[in-house]
Design brief:
The chain has 422 residues and is an alpha/beta fold. The chain has two domains: 2-288, Alpha-Beta Complex (Spore Coat Polysaccharide Biosynthesis Protein SpsA, Chain A), CATH 3.90.550.10; 297-410, UDP N-Acetylglucosamine Acyltransferase, domain 1, CATH 2.160.10. 26% of the residues lie in helices and 25% in strands. It contains 13 helices and 30 strands. The protein has a ten-stranded mixed sheet with strand order 5-4-1-6-12-8-13-10-9-11. Helix 4 crosses helix 8. Mean pLDDT is 83; it is low at 238-254, 256-267, 307-320 and 417-422.
Length: 422
């Protein structure tokens, strides 16, 4: 099997947290978002990985490969493919058509977090349901996070007693007076609509779906960047009315007097989309916002700490004191760091409080500051007496003395607007 990681069209705010402008290299626990994904594939013996990226990311990703190649298995093959940042997912697959030769292909985004997940379970879900696509969905940890609880809801319509997906509506597609298609109502009690699941951004699909996506990508009319452009359940599977279900089953019974070869020829081709609901300890989600990235890091540290303490003591662990401060950091003895992820090379002055935040490499927080629920990009300097709550600061920005802000984004630019003006 092969895997494709989409990194060419990443959220603008996330890319500006790093000097290299690549979300794939954002720190995550003891690695990066990209190294986390690669570890999941290596664990499942998926050794042919294609990373789709924009030209501006080439140097950073090439350097990443050179630094990490020695820890990968000898048979592991990671190749980079440059595409324009505005390419749709279908267009990307069209450009990769000659490289995709496996019967099944995993597809995911560079911003997808899969720390506690076995990809083999996703593939087995595909096989068990005789589907052509399987997608990972998970419940956001709304009980542990107010920020996650406030995220827009998505709508997932599934069969009542199985994992087959009949319809999926992203939060951006749901309107106040949205109406479900009549074909879904025709199934009656056989349908379950859920708003507690979220698309993680990880899929496995059959060769036929990849080929179909490649053909769509050649059509200039189709420019949607979403994977759901070509794995829409309504287009991959026809849903019979409830009264026709029993008749359809009877019609599909093979002729028992036929030869054995006829039995195999009558087996239906894989169709439709199924879901795998991930319920692991660590959160599985797709990051599209700096604050979601910071909150994901906090939850990962918190839950990892609880699991570690439970395994060591055999008792229920405590969620306190789960900060992670990496090497080459200077933290004043009179400062406190609680529930935060501090990356290498950071300097924290006196009488500073850092709560539930993520500081990327080289951040300087001067005396008397309060940083709560924030993410500070690489090389950010916050001068004395700043109070930031639920804020995101782009790389290499300076926050003036005494700044007091809440729920703001500092130093970010609209990349698409910048390109159009040049």
């Amino acid at each position: 099997m092969q895997a494709v990681i989409l990194a060419h069209s990443e959220p603008a705010e996330l890319t500006q947290l790093l000097l290299c402008n690549s979300c794939a290299l954002l720190p995550l626990k003891n690695g990066t978002m990209l190294s986390n994904l690669l570890s999941r594939f290596i664990d499942c013996d998926i050794s042919d990985i294609l990373v789709v990226h924009s030209a501006s990311q080439s140097a950073a990703l090439t350097n990443f490969i050179e630094q990490n190649r020695h820890i990968w298995p000898d048979h592991f093959n990671l190749t980079l493919h440059v595409v324009p940042s505005q390419c749709s997912v279908a267009d990307c697959l069209s450009r990769l058509r000659s490289f995709l030769t496996a019967d099944y292909v995993f597809l995911t985004y560079s911003t997808t977090i899969l720390l506690d997940f076995d990809l083999r379970k996703l593939f087995m879900t595909l096989v068990r349901n005789n589907a052509s696509v399987a997608a990972v969905f998970s419940r956001l940890p709304v009980a542990e996070s107010k920020l996650m609880k406030a995220q827009p809801r998505e709508l997932v319509v599934t069969s009542h007693c199985s994992e087959m997906l009949y319809a999926y509506y992203a939060a951006s597609d749901i309107r106040k007076h949205s109406v479900l298609p009549r074909t879904l109502y025709a199934l009656g009690k056989g349908v379950t609509a859920r708003s507690d699941l979220h698309d993680v951004g990880c899929y496995v699909m059959s060769r036929s779906v990849v080929e179909n996506a490649a053909r769509i990508g050649e059509d200039v009319v189709h420019k949607r960047k979403s994977v759901w452009q070509f794995i829409d359940p309504t287009s991959l599977q026809s849903i019979p009315p409830a009264g026709d279900l029993q008749k359809a089953d009877m019609d599909n019974v093979p002729d028992r007097s036929a030869e054995l070869e006829c039995f195999y020829s009558d087996i239906s081709e894989p169709t439709g989309v199924c879901i795998f609901e991930q319920n692991g300890q660590l959160p599985c989600l797709k990051c599209d916002d700096p604050l979601i990235f910071a909150e994901a890091n906090r939850l990962i540290l918190q839950k990892s700490s609880i699991v570690d303490k439970e395994s060591m003591s055999g008792k229920k662990g405590s969620s306190k004191d789960y900060s992670l401060v990496l090497s080459d950091c200077v933290v004043d003895a009179n400062s406190s760091v609680i529930g935060s992820f501090i990356n290498p090379g950071c300097t924290i002055g006196a009488n500073v409080k850092i709560l539930n935040s993520t500081l990327l490499s080289g951040v300087v927080v001067k005396d008397g500051c309060l940083i709560q629920g924030c993410v500070l990009g690489e090389g950010v300097i916050t001068e004395k007496g700043c109070q930031l709550k639920n804020c995101a600061v782009a790389a290499r920005q300076r926050v003036p003395d005494g700044t007091e802000l809440e729920s703001e984004q500092l130093g970010f630019t609209d990349l698409e607007l910048s390109v159009s003006q040049t």
